[in-house]
Design a protein that fits this description.
Number of helices: 7
Largest sheet: none
Distance between the termini: 34 Å
Shape: elongated
Length: 146
C-alpha cells in the first residue's frame, strides 16, 4: 500500500491480487473472476460490479464466503486480507514470482537449478557486481536454514 492510497486495506490487498496473481496463467477481469467464483461456488452471490466496488473501496464488507472463495481463487490464505504478517509474506512471494516472469530471469533460474552451492555463490557474486554497476539495489534474501 502506498502512502497516498486512501482505499481500505481490504480494497488494496484484493486489487493487488487482481494485478499480480494469475490464476490459470492470465489476468482476470472483474466479470470473469465473478463468473469463475460462481462456477466454483454456485451458491455465491457475486458480480463483476461488486468486485470492482470491493477493489476501489466503494464497498468494504464482503461475506466470509466470498472472502474464502477469493482466497481460493487467488491461491492465498484468507488471513492475507486481515493479517499484516501474512500479507507481507504473500507480497514477497508474489514479487519473486513476478521477477521470474521477467524476460531472461526464468532462463537464469533454470540454468542454476541443480548446481553446487559453491558454483551458485560464485554466480550470485557476479550478478551482484553487475547489479551494482547498473545502479540497482542489492538483493536481500531470507537466511537459508541448513
Amino acid at each position: 500500500m502506498t502512502a497516498t492510497d486512501d482505499r481500505p486495506l481490504l480494497a488494496v490487498r484484493l486489487d493487488d491480487l487482481f494485478r499480480t496473481v494469475r490464476p490459470q496463467g492470465r489476468h482476470w477481469t472483474n466479470a470473469e473472476a465473478a463468473e469463475e467464483l460462481k462456477r466454483a461456488n454456485p451458491e455465491l452471490k457475486v458480480g463483476g460490479v461488486y468486485l470492482s466496488q470491493l477493489r476501489t473501496g466503494k464497498r468494504a464488507n464482503p461475506s466470509p464466503e466470498l472472502l474464502a472463495a477469493l482466497a481460493r481463487f487467488f491461491g492465498v490464505s484468507v488471513a492475507y486480507f486481515f493479517d499484516d504478517e501474512v500479507a507481507e509474506s504473500v507480497r514477497g512471494e508474489l514479487a519473486a514470482i513476478e521477477a521470474l516472469r521477467q524476460s531472461g530471469v526464468r532462463a537464469v533460474a533454470m540454468r542454476a537449478a541443480g548446481m553446487k552451492k559453491d558454483n551458485l555463490q560464485a554466480i550470485t557474486a557476479i550478478m551482484d557486481q553487475y547489479r551494482q554497476m547498473q545502479g540497482l539495489p542489492p538483493v536481500t534474501e531470507p537466511s537459508d536454514p541448513e
